[in-house]
Sequence to fold (67 residues):
Amino acid sequence: MPSNRIAELRREQSLTQAGLAERLGIDPATVSRWERGLTTIPDWRKVELAEMFGVSVPWLMGWGNDK
Fold:
């Protein structure tokens, strides 16, 4: 599940939801909704998050095990 992986990566870097939101230039509530699985992450944001955390988009989205 992508929401769990985003939260996992965020915590690994000692980032709060607000800290991640600030880095992305978005509202912290958006990160919260992503992590709770309430909203869909736009494709371009998936790429941005994967690049930021140094993982593949498929791994980030829970589609594979290859980070």
In short: The chain has one domain: 2-60. The mean pLDDT is 91. The CA atoms of residues 47 and 57 lie 6 Å apart.
